[in-house]
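Record Alpha/beta fold hydrolase, 285 aa.
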Amino acid sequence: MDATYDATKRELSTDQGTLRYHEAGDPSAPPLVLLHGSGPGVTGWRNYRGNLGFFTQTHRCYVIEFPGFGVSDPVEGHPVLTAGSSVIRFMDALGIESAPMIGNSMGGVVGVNLAIKKPDRVEKLVTIGGVGPNVFSPSPSEGLRLLQEFTDDPSRDKLVRWLSAMVYDRKLITEELIEERWQAAIHPDAQKTSQMMYGSAAFEMQQQFLAASDTPPYWSMMHKVACPTLLTWGRDDRVSPPDMAMVPMRLIPDAELHVFPQCGHWVMIEAKEAFEATVAAFLVR
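=>
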């Protein structure tokens, strides 16, 4: 199977602009929806390109590019909320009634919110870090503070510092990866989205809103996630430290947790083979 960028890229016209995505695998196989994370230069393709060859052995894979990250057309609204609505628009357009989902970091939060609000659309859920509140670790974490510093005043050096906090093995941060991420991070849509999510001013506004709001945080509603859920975590995650897993592990009724040693935030990349085997066993169970 040809799982290259050009062979898998697709476009979908919707009433809110064009959604772009990657599709690979046997058309008769069950669907698997992959949701990407956030951060400078992120795309769904960059998150999951190394895993497509494995998951297409059993599933028809759909890697959605969320609005506002420089690939799909941007839409108005907070990126986490617009990402969730884009998943439903995408599934409706392709006639996917329900599917298991894999969500990396922000993508995991998107998946959890969908499982709470649209439980009939999420068959199973796999999250990769990022889900839940900090319990013992500082908030924001080291990785998020570095992300905030980059967002407030982007530079190549700050990008390298942030990327280095994403992994356990810094050999993964190659010059090719740095250049790829830098070019994508300076896209105007990506910069606007990053400012909304991680800029200092936006962070302060979010904190003030939370303090004054009666609306409970999403993670306090995780007892409503009815689907089987696999929480995956890097033991050495400096963006969303492993103590965050305690709350979703306790609140989600049918949740299990797998922690990968010598691994940072990018579990699907840094612990690739172990992650794939663990997820494959979960999906067929």
